[in-house]
Design brief:
Elements: E1 3-7, H1 15-32, E2 36-40, H2 47-56, H3 59-62, E3 67-70, E4 77-81
Parallel strand pairs: 1-2
Antiparallel strand pairs: 2-4, 3-4
Length: 84
């Protein structure tokens, strides 16, 4: 398996669950040595995507991954890449 996927549509309005889901998928990717994680925030107003990016930019989280890419074709999708 080379990619994990996290869809946040079901928990879009539950901030604590969003943080837990993001933390879990990042740690899962590290544990399983997965090269990338696809995070689907949906298009909407963009607030959920901003929250995801703020979460990923926290120093203790940023140290865990190599880079993030915002999908240029799909506004509601972010890729987190890891280097192993």
């Amino acid at each position: 398996m080379s990619k994990l996927k996290l869809d946040l549509h079901e928990i879009y309005n539950k901030s604590d669950l969003i943080d837990k889901a993001l933390n879990d998928v990042i740690n899962d990717a590290l544990h399983k040595k997965i090269k990338s994680v696809e995070i689907i925030s949906g298009k909407g107003s963009g607030q959920l995507k901003k929250k995801v990016i703020r979460f990923l930019q926290q120093k203790h989280i940023k140290n865990k991954y190599h880079r993030i890419d915002k999908d240029s074709k799909n506004f509601g999708r972010i890729f987190v890449h890891f280097k192993f």
